[in-house]
Amino acid sequence: MADNGILQTLLKPFHASTVRRWGKRLAHCFTIGDIEKLFARRIPPVVGDYFVGGASDERTLRDNLAAFQQTRFLPNYGVSYDEIDLTTTIAGTDVSMPVIAGPVGSLRTLWPKGEAIAAKAVGEAGTICTLSTLSGTRLEDVRAASPHDCWFQLYLVGGKEVAMKGIERAKNAGYSALMLTIDTPVAGLRYRDKRNGSVEAINGGLLQKMKFAPQMSMHLSWLTSHFHDGGLMDFPNVELPGGQPMPYADIGNQLQQSAVTWDDVAWIREAWPGEIVVKGVHTVNDARRAADAGAKTIVVSNHGGRQLDRVPATLDMLRDIAPQMRDSDVDVLMDGGIRSGGDVAIALATGAKAVLIGRSYAYALGAAGEAGVTTALGMLRAELEHTMRQLGCGKLEDLNESHVRDCRAIAAAGV
Ligand SMILES: Cc1cc2nc3c(=O)[nH]c(=O)nc-3n(C[C@H](O)[C@H](O)[C@H](O)COP(=O)(O)O)c2cc1C
């Protein structure tokens, strides 16, 4: 990260003003969709596209959302509860609601020390925050910022030796589970990032960077906070053999070698004796393979539509996988397209024990930092509780397939 201490100090009051002003704007946000609009106002497109976009033509990205939009509820009325119990236990950790923050890389490009700020807000909401290998804040600082358990998500960026260092550090810092993401044999084809010129913005000279001046002038709140935080981050959790952190510019090349394979799980399990979570499961076959490899928790996930375009929506994959894993001792989680507490209820009724969120909290962080993430989690909690009251469910286990109907299946059957 750039050593520009004087500039960082000079910009401190500007960032403090951003925290106040953008925090106040949350009062006009009632849904995650409203927060997404605020994110688009504060974050310049050359930065924000990375978070918003998906792979190739973004079919799967759209399908993830559409699958929830086309599911309808069937409530059981005539019952009422004093309290709705949203608590559950995931991979040995008690959580206050079935919503976990999934790994989202590069959060520090959205907000100063973004990963630590998010972990604090998520932990204070009583749930787990997962730190991506490809993050800009030291994993020790992120763990220390959260009052709750955190998970560390591992990519094999830089190879086995580099990964072993990361595992060792995560163990020493007290992470409670290691997440292995299996759906990244290569980086997804992210055409938005090519079209918007972000590669030149990162790697180019001053002249190429100047092309972005008009865009930046419209997003001064982001610009001042970014330079207050030291400018473009590196990856302090990927310690290269010389001990230095991986520079941001190397990410494209490094991701080509970052896949976790089933063969790797054997040595990873030796290095990490604790809980293992396998993320990126698309099929019943891979769900069983993950269970055979020793995972007690799996995440049905297509990486938020960012890896292979045209794979099914995760809600549809969950419809296939959850019933097949019901009699196993594996907890099935899911992510992809969760934008409301109603979506959480649908996922749980379809067989997930809990969901992970990605963009919902990344948008909130980019819009208003810690207050944004706290607000987003509060929305999801309140909407889930509201939906359960309406459905006649007092606790999470009461949610089941009888509460949801897939409109697409009904239309196809011509009923
Ligand atoms: C900007 C961005 C970066 C991501 N980085 C990672 C990552 O480093 N590791 C990982 O396993 N998943 C990563 N994901 C995928 C998320 O963990 C999650 O699967 C996905 O965001 C869920 O979809 P949603 O955004 O619709 O909630 C990333 C997602 C986004 C949007």
Structural commentary:
There is one protein chain. 47% of the residues lie in helices and 13% in strands. By secondary structure, the chain is of the alpha/beta class. The strands form four sheets. An eight-stranded parallel β-sheet has the order 4-13-12-11-10-7-6-5. β2 (88-90) and β3 form a beta hairpin. The longest helix is centred in the last third of the chain and has 33 residues, at 359-391. It is globular and about 65 Å long. The chain starts with a helix and ends with a helix. Flavin mononucleotide is lined by residues 50-51, 64, 102-105, 132, 134, 153, 181, 279, 301, 303-304, 306, 335-338, 357-360, 362.
| CATH T-level topology | TIM Barrel
Examine the secondary-structure arrangement and name the CATH architecture.
Alpha-Beta Barrel
- Uncertain segments of ≥5 residues (pLDDT<50)? none
Give the strand order, joined by hyphens, for the main sheet. 4-13-12-11-10-7-6-5
Radius of gyration: 21 Å
The name of the CATH superfamily reads Aldolase class I
How does the overall form come out from the CA principal axes?
Answer: globular
Keywords:
two-stranded antiparallel sheet; binds flavin mononucleotide
Layout of secondary structure:
Blueprint: H1 5-10, H2 12-25, H3 32-42, H4 45-52, H5 59-69, E1 71-73, E2 88-90, E3 93-95, E4 99-101, H6 114-124, E5 129-132, H7 139-145, E6 150-154, H8 160-173, E7 177-181, H9 191-195, H10 198-203, H11 206-210, H12 213-217, H13 220-228, E8 235-239, E9 245-246, H14 251-255, H15 262-271, E10 275-281, H16 284-292, E11 297-300, H17 314-325, E12 331-335, H18 341-349, E13 354-357, H19 359-391, E14 404-406, H20 407-413
Parallel strand pairs: 4-13, 5-6, 6-7, 7-10, 10-11, 11-12, 12-13
Antiparallel strand pairs: 1-14, 2-3, 8-9
This protein binds flavin mononucleotide.
